[in-house]
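CHAIN AND CONFORMATION:

***
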Amino acid sequence: MKLSRILALTAALVGAASTAHAQFAKPEDAIKYRQSAYTVLSTHFGRIGAMVNGRIPFDPKVAEGDAAIALVASRLPMAAFGDGTDKGRETRAKPEIWKEKDKFNAGFQKMDEEMVKLNAAAKTGNLDNIKVAFGNTARTCKACHDEYRRD
């Protein structure tokens, strides 16, 4: 994917995230939105992981594009964790998210910081840099999943 397309997609996703919360007519809409965002995030983050772990060949341009998309996608779900979104449509989110909102938000902030670092590492085109940043980001994601996601 060309970098210009990635940047256009990134701009569109950021714009959508800023207005998403106001657009949820029902809690089920918010849940569907955040699940969709996590699907995009998982796909692009997973492709970086496959390169880092040697399951697919390393391509610096693909890694850079995937990191850019993953960064934007990682920011989208937060708008969809509003009141009432712990029920309804099937969700893997644990009730602790709404009971420990400050702690959950801090975890999201930490993930964002690590995603920014991963994005910067991907821009270097250096696989070793990407491996380090990917590992740190993956640990941050896992910590949140361990506490706040049902398996």
